[in-house]
Write a structure and sequence with these properties.
This protein is an alpha/beta fold and 219 residues long. The protein has ten helices and seven strands. Helix 1 links the parallel strand 1 and strand 2. Helix 2 packs antiparallel against helix 10. Bound molecules: adenosine-5'-triphosphate.
């Protein structure tokens, strides 16, 4: 089986920045599939505005009918903070020696040293860092990431398929400067987020009044 992509996030809500990146990685890296993994309790940020069931439902709508993209809800079913290292360990136990590719936007990669047991991630998976507008990696990232990059960087998808874990690939995706924060702000201000996320997801949000100013608390 080809490498499996793991794309974690709060997906509050999922948008075209996530979806386009996932599809491009599926195709350009020759992945068997990309699993979108919604985070249950994010350890490093404020709690999501939409609850776990809502974020999962939006993701399911977003990937419906798209071969190769699927939702993996294991972090929503696990109690306690959602640590990616636990998720990757569970996937490794299930998938044997299949190469695993953890897909990260460049903003997420720059925050990696704050992640729980982050130095173990590369023993469980490769890292694929997708360039995200405004979060350039051109300026050399602060060490310890610079040292990690120097030691682990590869340049082709074939390098990722050749072993189960341990490499870092930096790659470009079509730059879409879309964030869930901006979408929540638009909806909260009574404006439309249409064309930033799938229509089915927006219709689902709108029908339930999610992210309306009146429904708010956490931001
Ligand atoms: P928020 O604005 O609430 O922080 P977000 O839009 O950044 O949310 P997350 O769910 O936090 O989305 O991000 C999950 C993953 O998706 C991260 O690795 C992040 O870098 C990546 N990502 C988010 N938006 C984009 C985008 N527009 N292009 C590429 N990657 C993205």
């Amino acid at each position: 089986m080809g490498p499996v992509g793991i794309f974690g996030g709060t997906f509050d809500p999922v948008h075209f920045g996530h979806l386009r990146s996932a599809l491009e990685m599926l195709e350009t890296l020759g992945l068997a599939e990309v699993r979108l993994v919604p985070c249950g309790q994010p350890p490093h940020r404020h709690p999501p505005r939409a609850d776990a069931a809502a974020r999962r439902a939006m993701l399911e709508l977003a990937v419906a009918g798209q071969p190769g993209l699927r939702v993996d809800a294991r972090e929503l079913e696990r109690p306690g903070p959602s640590y990616m290292v636990d998720t990757l360990a569970a996937l490794r136990a299930e998938l044997g020696a299949t190469p695993l590719c953890l897909l990260l936007g460049s903003d997420a990669f720059l925050g990696l040293p704050q992640w729980h047991r982050w130095q173990e991630l590369l023993s469980l998976a490769h890292l694929v860092v997708m360039h995200r507008p405004g979060w350039g990696l051109d300026q050399s990232p602060a060490s310890p990431l610079a040292a990690l990059l120097a030691a682990r960087r590869v340049h082709t998808a074939a390098d990722l398929a050749a072993q189960p874990a341990g490499h870092i690939l930096l790659t470009a995706v079509t730059p879409l400067d879309i964030s869930a924060t901006a979408i929540r702000a638009l909806i909260g201000a009574g404006r439309s987020p249409r064309y930033l996320l799938p229509d089915a997801v927006w219709e689902h949000i709108r029908a339930r009044g999610w992210y309306n100013a009146a429904a708010v608390t956490a931001e």
